[in-house]
Amino acid sequence: MPDRLPHPPQWVPPIYSDDMAFFDSEKNLAFRYCSVRLLLAYRNGKPAGRIAGIINHRANSFRNERYARFGFLEAGDDPDVVSALVSEIESWARAMGADSLIGPMGFTDQDPQGMLVEGFDTMPLIATNYNSPALPLILEGLGYSRKVDYICYRVDIPDRMPESHRRIAERVGRGFRLLEFRKKSELRPFIRPALSLMNETYSGLHGFAPLDPEEMDALAARYMSFLEPELIKGVEKDGRVVGFLIAMPDISPGIKRARGRLFPFGFLHILRELKRSSDLVLLLVGVHEDARGRGVDALMAMALYESARRRGMERAFFHQELEDNRLVTTETLRVGAVPYKRARIYQKPLG
Predict the structure, then answer these.
(1) Which of 68, 107, 181, 241 has the highest Cβ tally under 10 A?
(2) Please, which residues bridge with residue 100 across strands?
(3) Percent of the chain with pLDDT over 70
(4) 4 confidence band (pLDDT: 50, 70, 90)
(5) How do the domains of the chain map onto residue ranges?
(6) How confident is the model at residue 294 (pLDDT cuts 50, 70, 90)?
(7) Alpha carbon distance 150, 131 (integer Å)
(8) Alpha carbons within 13 A on the beta-carbon side of 63
């Protein structure tokens, strides 16, 4: 349905086969602990919009909150359709005992979240949303206000890492070992320890709730086809993963050329983009609390940039970073990255 609505040229469709599985309660493990309301709007018998209402009971319990979420809002910038969809989700959320509606958010924080409010001239990265400038204004007119912003940064990949980073990396303490990968068979055993570390290091971030082992495996399977082993780095100490950095080529242009369909030939566009993309997307990074301030992040960044340069990559794009995550933001700015896009989580009390 989304590709039947008008979209600006920067919009990138989802991979539709993934979308169908994502909204299938038999395939998406998050349905086990989320209450969900999926709506379509019709005008004159034709699809005119969609929205999802979600209550993540695990996240609410973990964070001691009573939030409902809205997400996957598509309405072609029609104020009447947006209002009808959002109002229906508000009524449902209120009846379910929620005290606020926030969004756009997905089932978990690994899903696309945030509504674009700055940076409309660029295509979205994987697992991020795109919308026109009109949609935030419509939402604000319905009584929604800013809760928190995500910022995207970009930086040119240097021929040589800054001297400050090199000095920090050289001071990495004894016992730390850089992990690098050449094949996916080497990478697979690393995924669960890395995502377990994510559970620890991301626990204080907005909307996060820990993944269980089955969800870790499902998340890995969802992205494994798009991962290039040499663009993933880790650090271990005493046999335990204490740092991870997961990056991938930007495949959005390939998905756009494929029109979101893998078959019969769409997957060829995506595979071609995986190999030739000059843009690097930094998806996830985490360092164990005990290893912070020891140069672990600088060591992984240096190794990643060297791998990216060998592939002929020219720019690095940092995935959405919470504006109040000072630890990550400071490190991002240290390498010369500049903000180019901003996405917003909105909120509205349901009293």
Answers:
(1) 68
(2) 67, 349
(3) 96
(4) low
(5) 2-150, 158-313
(6) confident
(7) 15
(8) 19
pTM: 0.93
Mean pLDDT of all residues in 164-172: 72
CATH class of 2-150: alpha beta
Residue 243 CA, distance from chain mean position: 19
How far lies 267's CA from each of 13, 207, 252, 274, 277, in Å?
A: 14, 33, 12, 11, 15
* Cα–Cα dist 244/236, whole Å: 9
Q: Which CATH architecture describes the domain 158-313?
A: 3-Layer(aba) Sandwich (3.40)
Please determine whether the domains at 2-150 and 158-313 fall in the same fold group of CATH.
yes
Is residue 338 packed enough to be buried (19+ CB in 10 Å), middle (13-18) or exposed (0-12)?
exposed
Which one, of 261, 245, 196, lies nearest residue 18 by Cα? 261
Q: Please, which pLDDT band fits residue 1 given cuts at 50, 70 and 90?
A: low
